[in-house]
């Protein structure tokens, strides 16, 4: 069975529940500062406890998730002492690789900075690590919360995570030498930067690597992530689109790309499908994959229906992880998915798109008791690529 290659980020996640007690601790840290926290839309950088508490409250009120850079190492050290954290592996590349390996799909993952902590956190059969240097692995602090029955999370990270570069030489060598082992390559991590200038360096590194594959054809999937601005996100897509077969994003990222004032899912069904179709054309990508709470959709320049098994694979992988809070085997995924009902709006949209050649919609599965939200998008990507169309398609 062909596997998937996953790049380029890997880190350690520290997870805690954002309950009233922790929220009060964050607010109390602002008492020594001149201004109380105000829940206004935050920027990417958090320089003080006032910034941090304000960002948390804004996201909770908006019912959104977000990722922010905490510029003070002292704040991150103090944050570690404010909660009982659960430790696990993180990063889009490593999360997707673990999800694939647990389900029986062989996976190779790029680990830019290997440290001893990974020895205790990684024990999956079928997972092949291509290791970079031995500097300390980055830690992301993840605050999970629930609003109106919808789970979400806020990610806080430090600066200078991958200043020495992302791609491990071992990963590059194995991929070029053994390309026929892999059915797809996941590309991510261009946002693991502290500034647009540093991001440009990471993007340049990835683009050069993809070009170097040349005579080693592997279908490439680019997974988008929160970035500095809409204009810079569009610039990322322009750089990568000649080198990738598909581009994936979640509903919040799609709303930003479309320039919407409100949420993507607030659009009426017909308008939603029209806007997604227009988005693929405007972005100039071959296959646009959008994964949302009620559905997953592929908008293609060809026959979108060929992506239906992949969309279904992503949905089943993500649903099983949401229901259990962990990476699941293939047997567990199928058992859990078979007992979950499809989302009603997803069913409706799938019916509306049934006669459209360029759009395929697959309803999401309703998980009534969500155990965890961390890594669901990455887990979706693993299922998507495990069942993605081959080069012949």
Describe it.
This protein is an alpha/beta fold. It has 14 helices and 15 strands. Strand 8 and strand 9 (150-157) form a beta hairpin. Helix 4 packs across helix 14, helix 11 packs across helix 12 and helix 11 packs antiparallel against helix 14 (376-386). The chain starts with a strand and ends in a 7-residue tail after the last helix. The mean pLDDT is 91.
> Terminal Cα separation, in Å?
17 Å
Low-confidence stretches: none
Q: Considering DSSP H and I runs of 4 or more, what fraction of the residues is helical?
A: 25-40%
Give the overall silhouette.
globular
Sheet of most strands: 9 strands, mixed
Structure annotation, total helices = 14
Backbone CA Rg: 20 Å
Major β-sheet strand ordering: 7-6-1-10-11-12-13-14-15
How much is the average pLDDT?
91
What is the ordering of alpha helices and beta strands? Answer: EEHEHEHEHEHEEEHEHEHEHHEEHHHEH
- In total, the number of strands is 15
Please report which band the strand proportion falls in: under 5%, 5-15%, 15-25%, 25-35%, 35-45% or over 45%: 15-25%
Question: What are the defining features of this structure?
Answer:
alpha/beta; nine-stranded mixed sheet; 14 helices
Can I get a quick summary?
The chain has 393 residues and is α/β, with parallel strands linked by helices.
How are the elements arranged and paired?
Layout: E1 3-6, E2 11-17, H1 20-28, E3 45-46, H2 49-62, E4 66-70, H3 73-80, E5 86-90, H4 92-102, E6 107-113, H5 117-121, E7 127-133, E8 139-147, E9 150-157, H6 169-177, E10 182-187, H7 196-213, E11 220-223, H8 230-240, E12 246-250, H9 251-258, H10 269-283, E13 287-291, E14 295-300, H11 308-324, H12 330-338, H13 344-352, E15 359-363, H14 376-386
Parallel strand pairs: 1-6, 1-10, 2-8, 3-4, 4-9, 6-7, 10-11, 11-12, 12-13
Antiparallel strand pairs: 2-5, 8-9, 13-14, 14-15
Helix pairs in contact: 4-14, 11-12, 11-14
């Amino acid at each position: 069975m062909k596997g998937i290659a996953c790049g380029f980020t890997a880190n350690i996640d520290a997870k805690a529940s954002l309950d009233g007690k922790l929220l009060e601790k964050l607010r109390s840290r602002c008492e020594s500062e001149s201004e109380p926290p105000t829940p206004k839309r935050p920027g990417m950088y958090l320089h003080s406890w006032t910034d941090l508490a304000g960002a948390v409250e804004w996201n909770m009120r908006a019912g959104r998730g977000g990722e922010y850079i905490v510029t003070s190492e002292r704040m991150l050290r103090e944050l570690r002492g404010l909660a009982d954290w659960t430790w696990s592996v993180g990063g889009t590349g490593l999360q997707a690789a673990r999800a694939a390996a647990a389900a029986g799909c062989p996976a190779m993952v790029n680990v830019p900075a290997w440290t001893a902590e990974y020895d205790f956190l990684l024990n999956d059969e079928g997972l092949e690590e291509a290791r970079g240097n031995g500097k300390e692995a980055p830690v992301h602090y993840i605050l999970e919360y629930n609003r109106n029955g919808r789970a979400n999370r806020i990610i806080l990270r430090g600066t200078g995570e991958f200043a020495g570069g992302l791609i491990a030489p071992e990963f590059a060598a194995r991929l070029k030498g053994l390309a026929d082992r892999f059915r797809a390559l996941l590309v991510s991590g261009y946002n693991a930067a502290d500034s647009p200038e540093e991001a440009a360096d990471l993007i340049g590194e990835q683009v050069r690597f993809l070009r170097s594959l040349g005579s080693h054809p592997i279908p490439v999937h680019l997974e988008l992530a929160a970035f500095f601005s809409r204009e810079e996100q569009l610039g990322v897509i322009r750089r990568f689109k000649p080198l990738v077969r598909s581009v994936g994003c979640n509903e919040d990222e799609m709303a930003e790309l479309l320039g919407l004032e409100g949420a993507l899912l607030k659009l009426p069904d017909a308008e939603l499908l029209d806007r997604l179709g227009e988005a693929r054309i405007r972005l100039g990508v071959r296959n646009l994959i959008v994964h949302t709470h009620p559905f997953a959709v592929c908008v293609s320049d060809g026959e979108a229906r060929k992506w239906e098994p992949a969309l279904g694979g992503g949905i089943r992988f993500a649903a099983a992880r949401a229901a259990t809070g962990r990476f699941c085997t293939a047997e567990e995924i199928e058992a859990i998915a078979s007992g979950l009902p499809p989302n009603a709006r997803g069913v409706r949209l799938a019916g509306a798109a049934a006669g459209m050649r360029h759009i395929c919609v697959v309803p999401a599965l309703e998980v009534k008791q969500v155990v965890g939200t961390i890594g669901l998008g990455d887990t979706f990507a693993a299922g998507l690529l495990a069942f993605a169309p081959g080069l012949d398609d």
